[in-house]
Amino acid sequence: MSGQPYLASEDSAFLRRALRGYRGDSCLEMGAGNAGNLVELTNRFRVVVGTDLVRPSMADWKAKGANFVLAEGSSCLRDSCVDLVAFNPPYLMEEGTGDRTVEGGVELEVPRRFLASAVRVVKPDGRVVMLLNGDADVGRMESELAERGFGMRRLASKHLFFEELSIYEASKS
Questions:
Q1: Residue 2 resides in a domain
Q2: Mean pLDDT of the chain
Q3: 140 located within any domain
Q4: 6-38 burial, b for 16+ CB within 10 Å, e for fewer?
Q5: CATH number of the domain within which 135 lies
Q6: Contacts of 128 (CB under 8 A, 6+ apart)
Q7: How many domains, the chain?
Q8: Domain span at residue 40?
Q9: What's 106's DSSP letter?
Q10: d(Cα 22, Cα 79) in Å, to the nearest integer?
């Protein structure tokens, strides 16, 4: 893995647009990359926290009052503590490059780990919003969510370059 954060691209902008419909007291963005979504989220949430394995190179999130923690997923937070969890995980099929900013692991286990981490910290009436590509095993994710009492629905899709990207929402309601 490189020591550089994931640089925002079209997928990050797609997620950012979807997040504009959410507001509340607290939110977490896991895998915050360069923290562009944190800046946007400070407009609608009182407490905004981003986590990632590397520190963002941009610093505008600090000026907007967001918080950042070097951590994997939600490992630094207690259970059921945030209104919204958002993430755009590494979602490409593993190609052996070792680039953890884009490769989703064998059988794309990284997005599923992000999802498990997210549902642990979201409040019972909260939401999890995630960006996935067409290679994700959505059926498997839906089954894993159902075991935890969550449902999942697609909010939006977009064809981008060589892939289909979709934004999903998971909730208990």
A1: no
A2: 86
A3: yes
A4: bebeebbebbbebbeebebebbbbbbbbbbbbb
A5: 3.40.50.150
A6: 84, 85, 86, 87, 115, 118, 119, 122, 150, 169, 170, 171
A7: 1
A8: 10-171
A9: G
A10: 21
Confidence grade of residue 120 (pLDDT, cut at 50, 70, 90) = very high
| Phi/psi-derived region of residue 142, left when phi > 0, alpha when psi is between -120 and 50, beta in every other case | alpha
Q: How far apart are CA 114 and CA 102, in angstroms?
A: 14
Mean pLDDT to the nearest integer, 135-145: 90
Residue 1 lies in a domain: no
Q: Is residue 5 a part of any domain in this protein?
A: no
Phi, psi of 169 (to 5 degrees): -120, 135
Residues 6 or more apart in contact with residue 136 via CB below 8 angstroms: 91, 104, 108, 111
For 133-164, b where at least 16 C-beta lie within 10 A, e where not — what string?
beebeeeebbebbeeeebebeeeeeeeeeeee
